[in-house]
Design brief:
The chain has helices spanning 25-45, 61-74, 99-112, and strands at residues 2-10, 13-21, 47-58, 80-85, 88-96, 119-126. By secondary structure, it is α+β, with helices and mostly antiparallel strands. The strands form two sheets. A four-stranded antiparallel beta sheet has the order 4-5-3-6. The protein has a two-stranded antiparallel sheet with strand order 1-2.
């Protein structure tokens, strides 16, 4: 980037001017950075504190995948989260804003698992696109 300064005389009065020559590619970079920052803010804004259900904690991999598949089939509007904490496989379920909202699923999942205990977890949840944050 270059800059030039010059002084001219206008009617015997000195006038100070600064001419700035900006590379057009800087505007493109500014816009790209704006898009990146906006995407980051949207990602962070799409999470909030809420509840999930702890459905399963087992070392039986086949059983864990069976339960995960059953959850996906019975409740396609919610999302199961499966992770490995050697030697256990854990399944969390859902993105609920309130305990009351989670209670409905807790009862159904407990019944589906033959009366197994299902626990509330207070943690960060995902907000689906199109939903408003409170």
């Amino acid at each position: 980037m270059s800059s030039f300064a010059q002084e001219t005389m206008q009617d015997s009065i000195p006038v100070n001017k600064v001419n700035i020559f900006k590379d057009a590619r800087l505007s493109v970079l500014e816009f790209k950075q704006f898009e990146i920052n906006s995407a980051i803010l949207k990602t962070h804004a799409r999470t909030t504190l809420g509840y999930r259900l702890m459905v399963l904690n087992t070392s039986d991999k086949d059983y864990a995948f069976k339960i995960r598949t059953e959850l996906l089939q019975r409740f396609p509007e919610q999302k199961p989260y499966m992770w490995f904490a050697n030697p256990y496989i854990r399944i969390k379920f859902g993105n609920f804003r309130t305990k009351d909202e989670a209670e409905y699923y807790k009862k159904q999942i407990s019944y589906m698992l033959g009366g197994a205990n299902v626990y509330f977890l207070h943690e960060m949840i995902e907000i689906p696109p199109g939903s408003e944050l409170d």
